[in-house]
Amino acid sequence: MALHRIAVLGAGTMGHGIAYAALAGGFDVQLFDVDGAALDTGRAAIGEIVAKALEIGKLSPAGAREATSRLGASTDLGAALDRADLVIEAAPERLNLKLALFAEIARLAPPAAFVASNTSALSITEMAATLADPTRVAGMHFFNPVHKMKLVEIVRALETSPATLQAIEEVARRMGKETVIVRESPGFITTRVNASIGNEAFYMLMEGVASARDIDKALKLGLNHPMGPFELVDLVGLDTRLSILEYLHRAMGEKYRPCPLLVQYVKAGRLGKKVGRGVYDY
Ligand code: NAD
Q1: Does residue 1 register a pLDDT over 80?
Q2: Which partner for 15 in 10, 241, 244, 258 could form a disulfide, CB atoms 3.0-4.6 Å apart?
Q3: Residue 139: phi, psi to the nearest 5?
Q4: CB-ligand 1 contact for 117 (6 Å cutoff)
């Protein structure tokens, strides 16, 4: 069955990017946010991506007008979910908030709709359990900024059906993305590997193996990483990275114990670029 209409719930950093990718893939998109101002900001951000695509010749003026005409935005969840073939949830990373939103999806979305969550780490199985048919739910983990990043990790929860995976893979493909399928597990592939590399880098810094600049330089020039682990953690936020490691440590044991130096940096308020200082000063 071909999917036409996608409801994106949450118009923040990820939601607006997912909505743009869906427009670019030819879908009708309904963007929803509980906060009218956030919805306006999300819509404006989509406008900026469209303008940039026009400027660099990725979209023609007619193509840009046509794509924009397929975007609807609402603070009314029922209206946003009306006739949706796929719902992509991109609300804040708090389990209780997501469970409450899923309960509303269960009440208001067409029963035949597929449902995906963009969670970075939470259990899709737990969210799926709130729906009458959990086989129609999977994870769709996009990367920031969505319009530039090629990958979508598709997460197979306990009861996700093969038909759901196939439908979601097809949507991602139409959005121009590459996919990997991951069995639900903490941190999927990318979050788990990234957190491990970042933690190891902090251990090396703590042990005096090399300076932060040289560790970053080694991974960039020796291993071809586009950014060094400290440049990256400064961007992600040291507090965010710490909470991911704490979660992986709780779920999977000693291997993921956060490095004491990272904990100390967070206690010192060195949270990264967003506050002007992290591993580096900005
Ligand atoms: P964000 O804070 O930028 O945006 C969240 C939006 O959701 C806000 O506009 C907020 O008003 C809205 N919202 C709040 N409650 C809501 C509700 N009940 N229903 C609908 N919308 C609601 O957050 P984000 O960075 O876009 O993250 C969204 C999700 O994507 C999270 O699960 C996060 O873990 C995941 N994610 C984030 C990144 C990233 O780099 N930021 C990358 C991959 C995945």
Answers
A1: no
A2: 10
A3: -90, 145
A4: no
- Residue with the smallest CA separation from ligand 1 atom 11 is 35
CA of residue 142 to ligand 1 center, whole Å: 12
**Count of other CB atoms within 10 angstroms of residue 149:** 14
Q: Which two tokens stand for residue 91?
A: 């609300």
CB of 7 sitting under 6 A from ligand 1: no
**Residue matched to tokens 């946003």:** 80
DSSP assignment of 148-202 equals T--EEEEEE-TT--HHHHHHHHHHHHHTT-EEEEEES-TTTTHHHHHHHHHHHHH
Looking at the chain, how many residues does it have?
A: 282
What's at 43, amino acid-wise? R
Are 9 and 87 a contacting pair, CB within 8 Å?
Answer: yes
Helix (H) or strand (E) holding 118: none
Q: Does the CB atom of residue 33 touch ligand 1 within 6 A? A: yes
pLDDT in the model for residue 122: 87
For ligand 1, is residue 8 a contact (CB within 6 Å)?
no
pTM value is 0.92
Please report, as a single letter, which amino acid is at residue 91. Answer: A
